[in-house]
Structure formats: C-alpha cells, structure tokens
Amino acid sequence: MKIFAIFHLNLMFSSIPEESRPEVIKRCYWPLLKLVEKGYPLGIEASGITLEIIRDIDPLWIKNFKALLRSGKAEFIGSGYGQIIGPLVPSALNRANLALGRTTGEQILETIPQIALINEQAWSAGMADHYLDAGYSAIFMDYDNPARYADWDEHIQHFPQRAKGTNGESIPVIWSRSMVFQKLQRFAHRELELDEYLSYVEDLGTGEGWLPIYGNDAEIFDFRPRRYKNEAVQEAESEWKLIEQVFEILLKRGHEFQLPSTVLNGLEHKYGGKELELSCASQPIPVKKQSKYNITRWALSGRDDFQLNSLCRAVCHKLEKDFPLCAENEDKWRDLCFCWSSDLRTHITGKRYNESLTKLEQLAFETKTAVREPYFQVSGTPARNHGRMLSLKSEYANVTLNTAKGLAVQEASFLSHDNIPAFGTLGHGYFEEIDLGADFFSGHIIMEGPGIPKDTDLARITPLISESDEFITAACSIDLYQGMLDKAVRIHKHKEQIDILYRFALACRPPGFARIGHVTLLTADMDPARLFYCSSNGGREEHFHLNGQTFDHSDNISFAVSASQGLGMTDSKIVLGGAERALEISPIYPEHGFIGMIKCRQATPSPFVRVFFSMQEMDETSTRGCGPDPKFNFSTGFSIKPRSGE
C-alpha cells in the first residue's frame, strides 16, 4: 500500500499561550524533522505567520527544514499567510491571504509549494479560482464529509480527483481522511492498541491508490493544548516514538511512504481525475471531522465571533477600496489576515484574544473604519381600525403586516413580479403534514438558549406609521425576556425594496442562538423542480438546486452545538427563488457578519423553503452569557429586493 502524510504546524493554535511556543517547537516540530531524517518522506504545512514565529524563535529549525526540502526528503505544503476560513471571508481577503502566504513561504524556506492545505478543510467551490490564481497545482482536502452527501464510486477515495469550481474550472485534489488521521492520534495517545491500529489501516484496501495516513495537527503529540478536561493523558514515553514505531512496522510489512505530490501521478489512472462537486445544497461548506466541526464554529461562536467578524469585514471593505494590496499597504493586509485567524474564534485564551482585538481596533482606527448600524425611530401616528392586518403600499411594493405577531410579514409583493406575493406567512393548516402544523412567519426573530425562555417578537403591538420622501414605515417596540426590541418594516417609495430593521437592547449577549430576518418563500404557484438558492462563500456566486431536497442548516448536532451548516454570504447577499421569480436578501450594511441558513422540505401542497440569518450560534467554544459580558445594544436589518426567476 502506498502511504503519505501531511503534518499541519500552527503556532497560532487557539489554546497555546505565546510563552509555550518554544516548548511546542522543541517537543513537536523537532521530532517531526527527526522522522524525516530517518527516511520517512513527509509533507509539512505551515501558514506564513507560523513560519515567521518559528524563524524568530528557532532559526535552526528553519535551516534544517530547508535542508530537508532541498534534498527532496520532505515537501512543504502551502497555506495562506494566516489560517483563515476561506468560505467566511471576502474574495479580496482570500486573494491577499494566499498571495502573502506564498510570498512569505518563499522568502523563509526558499521554495514554492505545489500543494495547498485547505484550512480546517472548509471548502466551497468559489475557492477553486483563488488557489489556481495563487499558483497552486493541487489542494489537500477532506474526503469523508463531501462523500457522505455524494454518490461516488468507492475507488474515488484512493486516487486524486478534481474539485470543481463555479465557472468550469477545476483543481486537482488529494484526499485527507478524518477517520484515518484520528486513528493515528488515538494510537499515539494510547487509546488504541498497535494490532488494532494496523488491522484498521491494512483493511482499508486502497488497491493501486494511496492512503493519507495523517493530515492534521502536529501540536497534539507530546504536548497538550488543554482545550478539554478529557484530553488524553500524556505518558512518559514519547508519542513521536510511538509514531516512529508504527511507521517502521508499516515499512517492514511492505507499505511504501511517498511524498504527497507523488499522489498527483494518479490523476491519469482510470479511477483518478474525475471532476467532482465537493459542495451541495444541504452541505454548501464541508468541513473536516465530525458534524460538530461546522462553519458556525468560526463564524458565530467563540468569545464574540459575530462582532469580531463584522469589524474584520468593515476593515476589509475599506482596504479593498482605499488601500489595495501593494508593498506600501502590505502590512495592513498582513494585520487583517492575522486578525481573521480561525484560532482567534475558538478556544483562544483571554490574553491573546484581547491583544488581537486591540490590534484589530487599531487597524480600524488607522483606516477610519467602523461597523455601521442603521438608524430608525419608533415614532409616528398609531395605526387603528385595521384589524390584525396592516397594509403598506407604494408604486413599487406592497406589504401586509400582522400586528398580532409583531409586524410579521403576512405577504409581500413587487411591481416587477406583477404584484404576485413572493414571501410572507404560511399559516397553520397550509401543509398537510402534522409536524408542519404551525404558522411559518417572515420577518421575525428567534432567540433560544440554555436556562432562558425562548424569545420571539411575535407579540400583539400597536404600530406607529410614518412617511418620508423615501419610505413608508411601520414601527413598534416589543418587550423580550432578555430586554427590548425596536422593530420597523419600511417600503421604499421610489424603488422596489422592503427593509426590515431591528434594534436590540438586551441585558447581555444572548446565551444561545439568535436568528433573525426570516424570509419564507410562497411556493404555491412555483415549479418545485426549479427552486434554488445562490450564495458566495469566499469566491464567486454558487448556485444550488433545491429540487427534491429536504434539509435544515439550523438542525442542532447536540444540546451543546446549535447548528450544522451555514452560508458565508461573503458578498453580503443570498438569492432565493425559482423559475417564476426570486428574491435578493442583503444586510443593510454589508459588513454585518451574519451567516445565512436555508431550510427546505418537500411537503404537500408545495415545498417549504425559507432563509434566515444567524448572528450567534452555540458550541463548545462559546464563552458567552451574562457574567462579565457588556450589555448587547445593536441595530441591524435586511433589504429584500425582487430578482427575475431562473
């Protein structure tokens, strides 16, 4: 069996204090080089930031690594300047990160990598262009999660394939295998016996293909980041010695270690080189390992990912406009890449988080950047004698609001759609299925978490109506369990646009999830086979068909992990619709770091399709609640515009 391995080096590792970095280099990185020196050809990947840190702490390690690269005994696997989750950041940042990472690697190691490791194995089709443009010949990406939503031949996993992009392009991919690298981790941590490990590996049956025996962190061997109380106990015997032992046994049993780039020879094999979609409607952004490791982990949990990402987006938009990437502005882009590091969004220590936030705020100050918030007033004339339903009309749009449910949208239409209602409420009894026997509103919020009642804005209110040269507005204030919500729905008088605005004044950040801006598609007269959604996830817009699909991105994984999927919407919009008509939904200010979530279910008499936007989710990295957190005061909102059908 042909075997290869890639070890990921990351001195930005969230739970490693800066003062422990020399120890990590000594205990983890030097033994890795010793393995190579003993004849095991390995791939070693590091971001530009990690290479700079190693160079500054231990330049001898860099010297030895360069010697191994020159001799062909090891292979450098590329990355960005920072370990950034590509599908969550704008295209401009992805381009800059990959360019700066490649430049830094070439300067420090005097080599140009052929293969790039996909950070956290978080992929979208829009990323293919970026890696090709950066000069990479292939990527290293997880097989297991794309495969579970695909109907691929079993041989696909053992050979290099081609990951499709958004516009006919593709990039060769060599596979990582989450279960396989976890087995080596378990063996090294003495949670698996040698014979159990060997039996597992040799039963995989790769035939003429390759097995990625490892493709993850180097820092977990002979060092413990202390993220979890139940981490494997570190014994006296070196875990690197155990890895060397099992590598030696594999060699003696006739297995051959090869450099990762050798795998690309399999592109011409009859089982290799197939063009594959790694994403799909139900899993638009596949990520490594088990389902708790999903895109919300770096978007909406951690210490305060939403606010951190929103400020990063604001700075990115400013840099793209006024400080394009060049030698003069390079430091600003490097600082932003640093501040968008994935590790600042998970188990980051308090000291490192505060230092990084200060760095980001300083960059925002230097570039005169801030996260904007929409302003609106809850004022006007009380609306009376309208029953439960209140209608607002202009030449370009009509909206009917339910005043018994906090200005939930009953139905809304646009002139270019021939005033056919496009979104609104599907009432109790619309669907025949009993488990859909509820009201499915539009425009509302849902906040829910451990230890608190479920919070919504579906309350009876008396709206205040106002009119200006631009808008007709209905507004109200609603008491929540966690504080107060001001809400407004306005239609534009001179263009086809409806806005839904929210102003939160809460005692603290919500302790669970917070999902707002629900838009429920009215599908009764739409062709189910032509329904779709579009989103950009780090690159060009991607188109996903909903024909026959049933999924919910907001499905919780466990009590502690509140969602399973999401959309990066890195161009700050989602398009949802069908052949007859479509809607474009966007945050009022594009820097607001929401992720979109789609729910689609095949039902009678028509499919249930809706989109909503999350500004907070929950997982084991979350450190939120009412303790030391400041009060949560934030205004945001969404615009909804008509699009032609597709």
TrEMBL record:
CDD domains, per database record: GH57N_PfGalA_like
Keyword Hydrolase in annotation: yes
Gene Ontology biological process: carbohydrate metabolic process
Keyword match Hydrolase: yes
UniProt cross-references to Pfam families, sorted A to Z: Glyco_hydro_57 (PF03065)
Superkingdom of origin: Bacteria
InterPro entries: GH57_Enzymes, Glyco_hydro/deAcase_b/a-brl, Glyco_hydro_57_N
Start and end residues of each Glycoside hydrolase family 57 N-terminal domain: 23-239
Molecular function in Gene Ontology: hydrolase activity
This protein's UniProt keywords: Carbohydrate metabolism, Hydrolase
Matching PANTHER family: ALPHA-AMYLASE-RELATED, ALPHA-AMYLASE-RELATED-RELATED
Sequence similarity: Belongs to the glycosyl hydrolase 57 family.
Identification of the protein by name: Glycoside hydrolase family 57
Organism: Maridesulfovibrio salexigens (strain ATCC 14822 / DSM 2638 / NCIMB 8403 / VKM B-1763) (Desulfovibrio salexigens)
